[in-house]
Write a structure and sequence with these properties.
With 358 residues, the protein is α+β, with helices and mostly antiparallel strands. It folds into 2 domains: 231 residues, Rossmann fold (3-Layer(aba) Sandwich); 111 residues, Nucleic acid-binding proteins (OB fold (Dihydrolipoamide Acetyltransferase, E2P), Beta Barrel). The protein contains 10 helices and 20 strands. The two termini are 34 Å apart.
């Protein structure tokens, strides 16, 4: 039996706005689940319904098999870390960590043991006597995380906890939160709009758009097997390239080259004769030059970005803008013509009307 179950969960506000539609998820004990999607897609609202901070309009929410729709946050045994650190500015790190346990009437010796153990896990032992204003952003976020894990709850909920940190701090905190999750073994649900965080931290990802779940799967699954164009374009950096064309005689024409879609679709290509499809490929899925068992395309180089270990090359293909990812030693000249190959296995085809993968 799943530890957390959401069955057809809906959130409808009094003004009629339908924020979350028929959300379904089963999370096992100890899983790290990441909700990802653009701002306003319903991910934080869903998290707040799990926390008990928002009422569930329709559907069932179960914890360990028990209906928990009407349980308060304390009954659900959840701990939540918000985007803001929400630390008490007039308390030391030690007192911030201990405060919740003190309210529960936990013995002082037990509090001291837990505070010091938590501080050790988070690398805060040397900062216990400091006030929050004397800490860096990353250190303050660790204190906020510590205040949650010290309570030994079964469910951790994190809402954009790294958004206030700089790029270097985010990378460090990503690995630290993942390590904390492994050590505590708690079920963690983490909300972010950053697909890099989702890909690097999650056991499973829930991709959302406009209040609807688009796909649930492992990072590898949503990356290599996207269900639709939204997931394909949202997961991956830079995003997937899309070229819209009409199918004629089983082919589409790109930069003067006929792409035989039968190589990907087999006999199914007949169903799309005379219709538009969307041809997709990832920037890193290409090879410069002409290769066998691949579609060959050409484009004009409009911009290059040197990123160190790789480079992004922006090309114009029959007025379609695409991005190619190459090694630093392969960067073509500006305004030059570049020929590249897209191996058949690296191609994605989508229905132009439904935007679902074919």
């Amino acid at each position: 039996m799943a530890y957390i179950t959401l069955k057809n969960i809906n959130k409808i506000y009094p003004n009629g706005f339908h924020a979350v539609h028929d959300f379904n998820l089963e999370a096992e004990r100890g899983e790290f689940i990441v909700f990802v999607g653009p701002s306003g897609c319903g991910k934080s609202t869903t998290l707040r319904m799990i926390a008990g901070l928002e009422d569930i309009s329709k559907g069932e929410f179960l914890i360990d098999g028990q209906l928990a729709n009407n349980w308060g946050p304390r009954e659900r045994e959840v701990a939540m870390v918000f985007q803001s650190y929400a630390l008490y500015p007039n308390m030391t790190v030690y007192d911030n960590l201990a405060f919740g346990l003190s309210l529960q009437g936990v013995d002082e010796d037990v509090i001291d043991e837990r505070v010091r153990k938590t501080a050790k896990i988070l690398g805060l032992t040397d900062y216990l006597d400091r006030m929050p204003r004397a800490l860096s952003g990353g250190q303050r976020q660790r204190v906020a995380v510590g205040r949650s894990i010290i309570r030994k709850v079964g469910i951790f909920l994190m809402d954009e906890p790294l958004s206030n940190l700089d790029a270097k701090q985010r990378v460090t905190m990503r690995s630290e939160i993942t390590q904390i999750h492994r050590e505590t073994g708690a079920t963690t649900i983490y909300v972010t709009h950053d697909q890099t965080e989702a890909m690097t931290m999650a056991d499973r990802i829930v991709v959302m758009k406009n209040g609807y779940v688009q796909q649930i799967g492992t990072p590898k699954d949503v990356y290599f097997n996207p269900r639709n164009m939204f997931v394909a374009g949202f997961i991956g950096e830079p995003p997937m390239n899309f070229i819209r064309r009409k199918v004629e005689n089983g082919c589409i024409t790109v930069a003067g080259h006929a792409f035989d879609l039968g190589k990907k679709l087999g006999d199914k290509v007949k169903d799309y004769e005379g219709k538009e499809i969307v041809f997709g490929f990832r920037p890193e899925g290409i090879v410069l030059g002409e290769k066998e068992n691949a579609y060959i395309a050409e484009g004009t180089v409009e911009l290059t970005e040197m990123l160190g270990d790789n480079a992004n090359v922006y090309v114009d293909i029959d007025s379609d803008k695409s991005i190619l990812k190459v090694t630093p030693h392969e960067i073509p000249e500006m305004d030059s013509q570049v020929t590249f190959s897209i191996p058949y296995e690296s191609v994605y085809l989508f229905d132009a009307v439904t935007e679902m993968v074919i």
